[in-house]
Every structure is written in structure tokens, then in C-alpha cells.
Specification:
It holds the Pfam family LPG_synthase_TM. Its main location: membrane. InterPro entries: L-PG_synthase/AglD (IPR022791). The protein is an all-alpha fold. It has one domain. It is built from 15 helices and no strands.
Length: 308
């Protein structure tokens, strides 16, 4: 319990320090100018896309829970997903909203394991889709970027293959060693994974929903970059943006602030843009996502007042 309290204290501090560091080594005036001149119509369109993301994510949660014999009313699931998304953006760690969803979806006659598992597997489907798009982007990078020299393209392909081989080899060794708790954990939830992802048409439903949601995330980030005057090339949409989004997975900041901007500052120059433009696009993306989840705050206030 104590370690959790310390983690919740240091998480926002770390994010603030990282964000301040990123701004201190950048041209703050240029970043603020880009944000001040952002195209509002694209910001509004991004806000609309966030609503679609949340609704589709809630429907994916409903489908995953139904596969585990834990049906959820779609209206309640959408409301809880709004609230959970808002909490994940404003509270340390980015998992408080998911814990809240599991708690609110639990019925009195069911164990905690099923609601928690439904939330876990629903989020896992999204991460798989994001890794898939990002991995595909790095494989295609040498073929889509005409400015790469043949030696650079070959180096990228070999690096991608090497990373895949190392990950596969390490995973196999760990699995065969049988010394880690997650081996038994995966075995215990193996049936749930099969039901949610592997049974006839389950993989198709999960895949279509998850890829659609990931594409919408990428579209919002791309709109943010266009809005501040720094449109990304096609290869950037499936490499730089997924990498920035993946930095938000780690529960070390609040809402991904800091890690996302640091990644954008490094990745945007690789695509012919500037690090300042990457930071501005990332800040605008974070603002769009946070504003897009504000209905969750309204739902929280309404539900609290209703209980009182």
C-alpha cells in the first residue's frame, strides 16, 4: 500500500519534470506559436473522433465481457468508458479508470476475477492492434520512404528482423524456464483468451474493432500535426505516431504527458519536420483527448449527485 502511495506521488512529478525538460531544450516560442495558430476545424474534428473511439471501445468491452458470460448493458458500458477514459487522462498511472470500470461492472453475485479479466483482455486487444500497426510500419518503412538509401533500407529491415528474433527467443526461453508467475497466469486464463480472441469470428470482431480504434487514434494525432502546420508523410502515420502512442502505455506519467512529447521531439525530425513541431502536435493531441473525455467528468458529477 505504501509503495502504491509513493508511486502515485512520484508519477505526476516525473511527468512534469520530463515535460519541463523537453520544453527547456526546445524553442518554446515556436511551440506556442504553432499551438496558437492551430486550425480549429481540425481540432473540432479530432474531438468528434474521440467520441467515436470511446463508443467503439465500450462496445469492444461489451463484446469481450459477453464472451466471458458477463453481459454489460451497452449504455452503461459507454457511460463507464467515458468516465474511465477521463480518469485515465487526469490521474497518475493511467489505470485508475480501468479499475473503476471493473468495479462498476461487477455484480453482487459474481467474483472480481471476471470483471477484471474483461477489462484486462479488452485493453490487451487494443495494445495488440497498436503493436501490429507499428511493427508493420517499421517493416514497410524502407519501401515507402523514397529518400532512404539502399543501405539504410537494408539496415532497417535487418534491425526489424533482429528485434523480432530477439523478442521471440527471449520469450521462448522464459516460457521454457517456467520460473515466472505469468506462465501460470496465462495458463489459468488460457480458456478466457481463447474464448475472447480465438473462437469462430471472435478474432475477426476483436480485430476489426481494435484496428478501427487504433486507426482513429492515429487519425486524431495526424490531425493535430496538420493543425499546427506539420503534416506527416504516410510512413510517419504508421511508425512515429504508434510509437508516441505506445509511450502512453507505461504507467509512469499522467495521461502520457511528458513521455509522448519526448518521443515526438525525437521522431518528427526523422520525417523531415522539426522536434518543436512534434512537441506541439503531441501537446495538441493530449489536449484534444483530454477535452474529448470531459463527458466522463459530467457523468461522474451526475452519478455522484444522484447517489447523494
Amino acid at each position: 500500500m505504501t509503495s502504491g502511495k509513493y508511486r502515485n506521488f512520484f508519477t505526476p512529478i516525473f511527468g512534469i519534470i520530463l515535460l519541463v525538460t523537453v520544453f527547456s531544450v526546445s524553442n518554446t516560442d515556436a511551440i506556442l506559436a504553432s499551438l496558437g495558430n492551430a486550425r480549429l476545424e481540425l481540432v473540432f474534428l479530432g474531438l468528434c473522433l474521440i467520441q467515436i473511439q470511446i463508443i467503439l471501445s465500450a462496445l469492444r468491452w461489451c463484446y469481450t465481457a459477453a464472451q466471458l458470460d458477463h453481459p454489460l448493458p451497452p449504455a452503461s458500458a459507454i457511460a463507464d468508458y467515458y468516465l474511465g477514459s477521463f480518469l485515465n487522462m487526469v490521474l497518475p498511472g493511467g489505470v485508475v479508470g480501468d479499475m473503476m470500470r471493473a468495479a462498476r461492472s461487477r455484480s453482487a453475485d459474481r467474483k472480481w476475477s471476471i470483471p477484471v479479466l474483461a477489462v484486462l483482455l479488452e485493453r490487451f486487444a487494443g495494445q495488440i492492434a497498436l503493436f501490429f500497426v507499428g511493427g508493420l510500419g517499421f517493416i514497410l518503412w524502407p519501401f515507402l520512404d523514397a529518400e532512404l538509401r539502399p543501405s539504410e533500407a537494408l539496415a532497417l529491415v535487418l534491425a526489424a528482423i533482429g528485434v523480432l528474433i530477439v523478442i521471440a527467443a527471449v520469450s521462448l526461453l522464459i516460457w521454457l524456464s517456467g520460473s515466472l508467475w505469468w506462465r501460470n497466469f496465462i495458463r489459468k486464463i488460457g480458456r478466457s483468451i481463447t474464448v475472447c480472441y480465438g473462437l469462430p469470428y471472435a478474432w475477426l470482431v476483436q480485430g476489426v474493432l481494435s484496428l478501427t480504434i487504433v486507426i482513429s487514434y492515429i487519425a486524431v494525432f495526424a490531425m493535430a500535426s496538420v493543425a499546427i502546420g506539420a503534416p506527416l508523410p504516410l510512413i510517419g502515420l504508421i511508425t512515429a505516431i504508434p510509437l508516441c502512442l505506445l509511450t502512453m502505455v507505461f504507467p509512469i506519467t499522467v495521461g502520457g504527458w511528458g513521455t509522448r512529447e519526448a518521443a515526438a521531439a525525437v521522431l518528427w525530425p526523422l520525417l523531415g519536420l522539426t522536434g518543436d513541431q512534434g512537441i506541439a502536435a503531441s501537446v495538441l493531441y493530449g489536449a484534444i483527448v483530454t477535452l474529448g473525455t470531459l463527458p466522463g467528468l459530467a457523468l461522474f458529477i451526475w452519478s455522484t449527485s444522484r447517489r447523494r
